[in-house]
Amino acid sequence: MKLQELSLPETKNKVALISIAHADDLLLFCGGGVASLIEAGWKVTVVRATNDRWDSFNLNESATIETNTKEFNLAMKHLGISKTIDLNLDTDRLGDYSEVSLRTKYIDIIRDEQPYLVLTFDPDSYLYEDNEDHKKVAVSMAEAMWTSGFDKHPGSQPVGIEPFLPVARWYFGREVAKPTHYLDVTVFIDKLIVATSLHRTMLINMARQWWLKGRTAGVSLDEFFQNVNNDVRFFAEMIVRQTRQKNARSRKYSEIYRVIDDAGVVSTLSQLGEK
To answer: InterPro entries of this UniProt entry (predicted)?
Structure first.
C-alpha cells in the first residue's frame, strides 16, 4: 500500500494531546510530527505515564526519577510544548497496572484538555513491540478516545466534566503494522537532535545496553560508551536519523503513522442534517 503524505488537520480547534509511556518516547517516535504542529500554532499537551525510575546507569532510583524528569522538561521546553502532565506510575510495571484505571486517567485528561488530535502508540502494532509500558498506554488511550464521549463513563470526576471526543488520531510505533501516511520532517531534524540530546541520562543508559550486547558478542564498545558519556549529541544524532525513514532518492526524512481522521464523517453528517 502506497503511503499518503500527511497534512495537518484543518480545524479551528488546534489542540493536540500526545500520550507516551516514557520521557524519550516523543522524540524517538513522533518528534517531527509534534514540531510541525507547534510551528503551525497548535497548543500541545504531553502526558507521560511513567516516572522512568530505572532508566539510568550508576544513579540511584530517586536521582534517576529527578534527573529524567528534569531532562524531560528541558526537552519539551526546547520543542515548545505548552503543557506536560506526569502520571508518575512506576516504569516497567504498567504490564501489571489496571488498564481500566489507566483508561480512567486518560478520560479525565481528554475531557479536560479537549484535543482535536491525539498522538499515541498504535494499539494494533504489536509485531515488533516488546515494551509492555508502550502496549498498556496504547490500548488504554485507544479505548479512552471513545469512552470519553459516553456520559456513563464518568472517569474519576463524575460531576462537572462534560463528555468529549477527539476527531483525529495519529498512531505511531516501533513498527506500525498498517501505516497509512508519512510526514516529511527533514526541516526539523536539527531541532530533534538537540532536543533528544537533552535526554542525557536515558541516552547513556541506552548506550550501556549496547555496551552489554557488545560484551556478550565479544566486541569491545568501551570507546563508544566513553564517547557517549563525554558527549551524547553524536549518539542522539544517530538515533534521530536512523528512526526516521530516509528516502534515498529525495534524501528526506519522514515519520510513519497510521492516521484515523473522522473529519470527513463529521462533514457528511453535517450535510445530511441540513437536508
So the answer is: GlcNAc_PI_deacetylase-related, LmbE-like_dom_sf
Cell digits of residue 257: 503513522
Encode pLDDT of 35-62 as tens digits: 999 999 999 999 999 999 999 999 999 9
Render pLDDT for 175-193 as a digit per residue (tens, 0 to 9): 898 999 999 999 999 999 9
Residues 6+ away with beta carbon under 8 Å from 45:
15, 16, 17, 18, 81, 82, 83, 84, 85, 109, 113, 115
| pTM > 0.85: yes or no | yes
Q: What is the CATH number of domain 13-186+250-270?
A: 3.40.50.10320
CB 113 within 8 A of CB 145: no
Contacts of 191 (CB under 8 A, 6+ apart): 35, 78, 79
Domain coordinates in residue numbering, the chain: 13-186+250-270
Q: 3-class secondary structure for 206-247? A: HHHHHHHHHHHHCCCCHHHHHHHHHCCHHHHHHHHHHCCEEE
Q: Identify whether the C-beta of residue 145 lies closer than 8 Å to the C-beta of residue 162.
A: no
Which three cell numbers, joined as nine digits, stand for 147?
Answer: 469512552
